[in-house]
Specification:
The chain is an alpha/beta fold. The protein has 10 helices and 13 strands. The protein is about 40% helix and about 20% strand.
């Protein structure tokens, strides 16, 4: 009988956890709050990487809650239809791959949305919040070169493909002789363009290549302390509606709190700089017991000038740490960079 009880506990322990979370969060809201969802619709883009990430979230949730039916809902975004060319530098670029999914979430056509954290705008639409994050994958950028050679060995005038201003600026910071060209499309499409010779090399997030099983094409993985990643790079998150205690409770067991701490810091940094995914800034965080270290950089798009600073926070407030680091960069020359970028966009 004891073994049977242990088996039943292991089978239903996450259900007990959800009920306890709901009990704590729904006190005074009535019995209806305790009705756990039996069907959860997960919104996602339709690219190979987006589907992989959504399936990863779905499988983790299904493993914990076998009594709930989880299903993917594929939603086409403006970024999927138009790419990034027509929106660069404008407000629309900050929601290029998320707006239609967030609208579906607000309209309750889906129950949660799975995003790459770096695609999410620094300020989310009213009524939405981050529900959970999975443990961070490698945040570094990497090079895929047609001849499988590292960046330092590329010839003068080598054509490098990337659509990210952050990557462009950091590449030019180290080598002004490189020719940076626009590269659009999903991860697998970009890799094919590099291998077939459309570019001498391209720069991508290493995490995406790992998730799609394409790491054999990687020529070099950049040192994250020299080539800073985008805020949130390598993190998959679930976005939910504020006040949705049922979905939040389902997400609690898969939420990786150390990764969430780092993401809060990095998003606060991005928010204070007023940026989206097309601001030429990078950030690297490191979390150790009792300390959060954060390094940030803001660059001119042509790589000619940058402000890079690092701080440590023993106080345990990741949002304040991110804001403080951004403020230091702004005060020490960052505002001039932002003004220059704004004037360039208006020209």
């Amino acid at each position: 009988m004891r073994l049977q009880n242990i088996f039943l506990y292991e089978k239903f322990k996450n259900l007990f956890f959800v009920l306890s979370v709901l009990s704590a969060r729904c006190s005074g809201l009535g019995a209806r709050c305790f009705l756990m969802k039996t069907r959860v619709r997960i919104g996602t883009r339709g690219s190979a990487l987006a589907l992989y990430q959504a399936e990863l979230f779905k499988n983790k949730l299904a493993n914990d809650f076998s009594m709930v039916a989880f299903e993917l809902v594929v939603i086409k975004t403006a970024g999927d239809v138009r790419g990034t060319r027509s929106m660069r530098g404008g407000d629309d670029s900050k929601t290029l791959f998320t707006r239609e999914i967030e609208e579906a979430l607000l309209c309750e056509d889906i129950d949660l949305a799975v995003h790459s954290a770096k695609d999410l705008a620094a300020v989310m639409p009213r009524g939405l919040r981050i529900g959970a994050v999975l443990e961070r994958e490698d945040p570094r950028d990497c090079l895929v070169a047609r001849k499988n050679i590292p960046l330092a060995h590329l010839e003068s005038g080598a054509r490098i493909g990337t659509s990210a201003l952050r990557r462009k600026a950091q590449l030019l910071r180290f080598n002004q002789d490189l020719v940076i060209e626009e590269l659009h499309g999903n991860v697998d499409t970009r890799v094919k363009k590099a291998l077939q010779g459309d570019f001498d090399a391209i720069v991508l997030a290493h995490a995406g290549l790992k998730r799609l099983g394409l790491v054999d094409h990687v020529s070099e993985i950049f040192d994250a302390e020299r080539f800073l990643p985008a805020p949130g790079q390598g993190i998959i998150l679930a976005q939910i509606r504020q006040g949705d205690a049922q979905t939040q409770a389902l997400l609690e067991p898969v939420n990786h709190k150390p990764t969430l701490t780092r993401l809060v810091c990095e998003r606060a940094f991005l928010k204070r700089l007023g940026g989206g995914c097309q601001l030429p800034c990078g950030m690297l965080t490191e979390l150790t017991p009792g300390k959060l270290k954060a390094r940030g950089i803001l660059l001119m798009p042509d790589g000619s000038h940058c402000i890079e600073r690092e701080i440590e926070d023993p106080g345990g407030d990741p949002e304040a740490t991110g804001m403080e680091l951004a403020e230091i960069i702004l005060e020490e020359g960052g505002r001039k960079i932002l003004n220059a970028i704004e004037k360039s966009n208006e020209a």
